[in-house]
Design goal:
Length: 1076
């Protein structure tokens, strides 16, 4: 059988038949020798690179399910590398006196001086270059001042070498004179490639594949692959994303052997008609060496039931190297994130039938999902129903590997998303690895697929200045080809993935004619999916470049203004809830906007903290941010914005996200529950609803129920809760009863076990006993049981008899301004008297919005307060002392702290702020208490299990929880306010033996508590977790209230007014303390 050399589809060939073919403006240059001039020429972004195509899989035989691709040979593993600073060691890819490119790429070149590096991997994480973190500014700013497209003179080039032996499939292709390609899945920023001394090609665009035909350069047996990877090129101006600037071959590298005939590009539109519940398929397969194909078949296979549709074809059906089939499929199950039903589309190419040789030339396959996503009446709809994205922006990131993430990382991420009710991801701000899209197809996640373009630093300057005249790409024709190529590469690769519902043109790059051309190109390539680009907000003259109204960090009121003024486009917040540090407060104000039809959700910024592990001189490690690697300039901890910490542990912020993003809303009461099923396509039969009755936070009864609510419906169901008054009668007094209903998985899924809780609802009431009880008992002093010592310096009370249990002692100082001893059986609970708290360790949001400046008077107000007056009392019931403090602030506000100690040693403690003060709102008010270090266990009845705040407590569930001082420390990248629990009724602080104290509310008002190994001041002063001192004490903070944490953004947005503490309003902490 004769076999001809494979040819590559020209980049000027259209893949559609519509409109002015903008693909013709994408010019892939051809050359046999490398040129250094390409680095600074924006019109040269690819040389000898092959045409972008779909990421389908293919085989030269009929594969079994889940079979790996045997026609591919991985070149991942250990490579050799030498990193050169081109400012001190000249290196020219076209040859130089110091290091000739020909020598570098030759098979006999000596690389003994090279070091080892893992591919995939970054030069920075391997130690060859220092990591740099900047947000808007370019990393060379202040060192050099190049003007685009020029690049800094201080540049690095990494010379990679990899020796390998051609595998059996590749060797067979070489012998058969079939095509062999070399693919770099991701390389930053620009690469020149040689194979066995032959120049192969040049490529930019760090985040889409660069594939080269190496058929003429590869040989059987031993081969040497050489790559010069540049840190900076003109492409760097297009890759100014808010991330660590990391370089090298950070995604997989590999070879591919083509069969005799090969589907180079496979595109499938799997449409779904929700009115008839039927699907249709529109397939275009572009075939290389189509003359070798005699016939074939296209099939759609259901993994469970087998073939659901098929269509045979002959050689005559292949026209100009393309097979186009369009047909109805009949009744199919639609794809959605709620029920991600996938089918397998296969295209089999057969040669002439031969009785002795299998006639299969190639089997290509891709997973498809039948769905229809469209804008209808200004509203985005999936399969006919309005969709709301409950999303997050996600960088590919690992704290050790940077952006060289593994499948294990991806699986962890996608399971986290599903467990926390997130249904959408924006691939900020570049196309991700292909495997991520496959997983999103399989698990059910909607994707906004974003082009690798961000030029924020070309048009944004300090002080909120906007300089359109310096913007790239804007209206500059020299940048158009590169930008069109980037969006074309992404669209062609990811076209078949049902998870991709929206194409995005990039991020924070202003607007202009280039973006309009990109928009039009995408619609040429894909006439179905809408196009997103937030940048048109900055230049409404190009509003048509986005089919969606998209904004970043708009306040709820601003969004509502758009939604209530005849909106023409669907609205999404492509970035909102800036989750930097202790944040995500006020999120409920955004999710409440779902009541407007044109509001279609948002994407939290962002998914994971971008922080890199760094080994210190003493052998320990810490997570780092900008500046920690002596990188200048830098943007400090602005990379720490995740709802997941950099080490992939879950942040307390995720608790709030999970509850507010839940599709099912649960409203229990004392006789049943109201369920609203916000799912679009699935009912609630796949869940178990567990009803619980809690009395004073402790579960007393539970039962499982089956409640079926259809999508979009609300239903009321009866529940036979026990009579709560019985518990009040048994307690002999009022009890707090919580009626709770949880939604749990009925069956195990790929992302969670059976019984996993997705959301909950609670209803809490106070129940009185049927018969009132009042024994009128008081604790009076009895001779021999309790002794009062009215000393010169202290007023003390001592219990030593048997009536009240073990010995106790309380000392109220006449000079130190408070309680200086609280002791039981010799165990002291006070290191120093409780201090007044009017401040909190600044959060990242506090720093960004100037809270430290605006509320500076409160920083020292409590810490440096002075005692202005004291009163001491004794009675037959015990002793008391009231301390009047004058706060160290301009108003010299007087607050009082009162201790009342009865004959049992019980302390009634009140701290009162009077209000009526003309001053900025308070960060917090209450007391901070230094305890001996052994008292590090916390048990509390309040909202938990994770920390909660005034504006972030929707995800907190009322109950009894246990934690420790160390466990309460959320490891935010920069130490800050942490560990707070809202709506606390009581708490116990104990040592390992259960000794300690119990603090309970003394009135109807709840309070806030935290127990930490560090004081407010320690947290405020540290800039890294490792800078905190070794714990020597435990710090109990009892607050009447604390302001919210905010989250609209982290550079100016204040905490919403309703979650601040008005200085004009009084605040009181009212608790009782009992020794255990």
């Amino acid at each position: 059988m004769s076999i001809r050399k494979a040819t590559i589809m020209s980049t000027t060939e259209s893949t559609t038949q519509t409109g002015d073919d903008l693909q013709q403006r994408i010019v892939i240059n051809q050359a046999t020798e490398a040129s250094a001039a390409w680095l600074t020429d924006p019109q040269v972004f690819a040389v000898n690179r092959m045409t972008a195509h779909s990421d389908h899989r293919f085989f030269d035989h009929r594969p079994v399910p889940n079979e790996s691709e045997t026609l591919k040979q991985s070149l991942d593993g250990e490579w050799r590398v030498n990193v050169i600073d081109t400012a001190t060691t000249p290196f020219d890819v076209s040859g130089s006196p110091d290091f000739a490119a020909a020598d570098f790429g030759n098979t006999d070149s000596n690389d003994a001086a090279f070091g080892a590096i893992a591919v995939p991997g970054h030069l920075e994480t391997a130690g060859y270059l220092p990591p740099k973190y900047v947000n808007i500014q370019y990393p060379w700013d202040g060192h050099e001042h190049p003007t685009a497209p020029d690049i800094p003179e201080h540049n690095h080039v990494a010379l990679y070498r990899r020796e390998f032996t051609a595998g059996p499939e590749v060797s067979a292709a070489i012998r058969g004179r079939r095509t062999v390609t070399l693919t770099f899945q991701g390389a930053q920023t620009a690469i020149y490639v040689w194979l066995n001394g032959t120049f192969v090609g040049y490529a930019e665009d760090s985040f889409t594949p660069s594939e080269f035909d190496v058929s003429d350069a590869i040989q059987e047996g031993h081969n040497v692959l050489a790559v010069a990877c540049y840190e900076y090129a003109s492409a760097s101006w297009l890759e100014d994303q808010d991330f660590w600037r990391l370089h090298g071959l950070f995604r997989s590298v590999g070879l591919t052997a083509w069969p005799e005939a090969h589907v180079t590009d496979l595109r499938a539109v799997a449409d779904y008609d929700h009115t008839t519940k039927t699907g249709s398929i529109d397939v275009i397969a572009r075939i290389d060496n189509a003359t070798a194909v005699d016939a074939g078949i296209v099939e759609i296979v259901d993994d469970n039931t087998g073939i659901v549709w098929s269509r045979e074809f002959s050689a005559d059906d292949i026209v100009d190297g393309a097979l186009h089939i369009k047909d109805g499929v009949g009744e199919v199950a639609p794809w959605s994130a709620e029920d991600p039903k996938l089918y397998t589309l296969t295209v089999t190419l057969n040669g002439p039938l031969n009785n002795t040789v299998d006639d299969v030339i190639e089997v290509s396959r891709t997973r498809i999902g039948f769905r229809r996503f469209a804008i209808d009446g200004g509203i985005m709809k999936l399969n006919g129903k309005r969709i709301v994205f409950k999303g997050v922006d996600r960088h590919e990131f690992d704290a050790r590997r940077g952006r060289a993430v593994t499948e294990e990382d991806m699986l962890w991420d996608i399971r986290f998303l599903k467990r926390h009710n997130l249904n959408a991801v924006r691939t900020s701000h570049y196309p991700n690895q292909s495997r991520w899209y496959e997983l999103c197809d399989e698990y059910g996640i909607y994707l906004i697929d974003e082009t690798n373009i961000e030029t924020h630093g070309t048009w944004s300057a300090p002080g909120d200045q906007v300089t359109p005249e310096t913007n790239i790409p804007g209206n500059r024709p020299e940048w158009e080809g590169a930008c069109l190529d980037r969006v074309n590469s992404m669209t062609c690769r990811d076209f078949n993935h049902p998870s991709v519902v929206i194409w995005s043109l990039g991020n924070e790059s202003y607007a202009g004619e280039v973006f309009q051309a990109m928009h039009d190109l995408v619609h040429e390539l894909d006439g179905v999916r809408p196009v997103h680009y937030e940048g048109v907000y900055w230049n409404r003259g190009f509003d048509a470049a986005s089919d969606i109204e998209s904004r970043m960090y708009a306040k709820p009121a601003e969004i509502e203004e758009y939604l209530t003024n005849d909106p023409k486009k669907p609205y999404i917040s492509c970035e909102y809830m800036h989750a930097m540090g202790n944040s995500v407060g006020g999120m409920q104000l955004y999710t409440a906007l779902e009541r407007y039809p044109h509001y279609q959700g948002g994407f939290i910024w962002d998914y994971i903290d971008q922080a890199l592990w760094q080994r210190l001189g003493d052998g320990t490690e810490r997570l780092t941010y900008g500046g920690d690697w002596d990188d200048r300039p830098h943007d400090y901890e602005f990379s720490g914005d995740g709802i997941v910490f950099a080490d992939r542990t879950v942040s307390p912020k995720a608790q709030e996200v999970k509850q507010l993003y839940a599709n099912v809303k649960i409203g229990p009461d004392d006789s049943g529950v109201t369920l609203t099923n916000g799912n679009l396509f699935i009912d609630t039969s796949g869940y178990v609803f567990t009803a619980r009755l809690l009395v004073d936070g402790v579960e007393q009864w539970s039962a499982d129920y089956d409640f079926t609510v259809l999508p979009g419906e609300t239903c009321r169901f009866d529940i036979a809760f026990p009579d709560a008054s019985d518990y009040a009668d048994a307690a002999g007094g009022s009890v707090e009863v919580t009626y709770e209903v949880d939604q749990r998985l009925r069956h195990a899924t790929a992302w969670a076990k059976a019984g996993y809780e997705l959301t909950f609802g609670q209803h809490t009431v106070t129940v009185e006993p049927a018969a009132a009880t009042d024994d009128g008992a008081t604790d009076e002093l009895r001779s021999g049981d309790v002794e009062i010592v009215d000393g010169r310096w202290n007023l003390g009370i001592h219990g030593s008899g048997t009536m009240y249990g073990n010995d106790f002692e309380v000392l109220l100082s006449r000079t130190q301004g408070g309680m200086v001893s609280l002791r039981r059986d010799g165990r002291e609970m006070v290191i120093r008297r409780p201090d007044i708290v009017t401040f909190r360790p600044l959060t990242d949001n506090d720093r960004g919005n100037g809270s430290g400046f605006d509320r500076a008077q409160w920083f020292g107000a409590g810490r440096y307060a002075r005692v202005a007056d004291t009163r001491f009392e004794t009675s037959e019931h015990g002793i008391a002392a009231e301390y009047a403090y004058e706060l160290a602030e301009p108003n010299r506000t007087r607050v009082t702290v009162r201790y009342e100690v009865d004959a049992t040693g019980r302390v009634h403690l009140t701290a009162s702020y009077p209000g009526g003060v003309d001053a900025p709102t308070l960060p917090a008010f209450g007391l901070e208490w230094m305890l001996p270090a052994q008292y590090a266990n916390l048990r509390f009845y309040g909202l938990g299990p994770d920390e909660t705040y005034l504006d972030r407590k929707a995800g907190g569930k009322l109950g009894v929880y246990e934690t420790t001082a160390a466990g309460s420390m959320a490891p935010y990248l920069v130490p800050q306010e942490t560990g707070n629990h809202e709506d606390v009724r009581w708490l116990e602080v104990t040592d390992e033996h259960g000794h300690g104290m119990r603090v309970s509310r003394a009135s109807a008002d709840t309070f806030c508590v935290s127990l930490l190994p560090y004081s407010t001041l320690m947290l405020e002063e540290a800039r890294h977790q490792d800078e905190l001192p070794a714990p020597r004490h435990t710090f109990l903070r009892l607050l009447a209230a604390q302001m919210g944490v905010g989250g609209d953004d982290s550079w100016g947005a204040p905490v919403h007014q309703q979650f601040q503490l008005d200085a004009a309003k009084p605040l009181t902490l009212d608790v009782t303390i009992e020794l255990l």
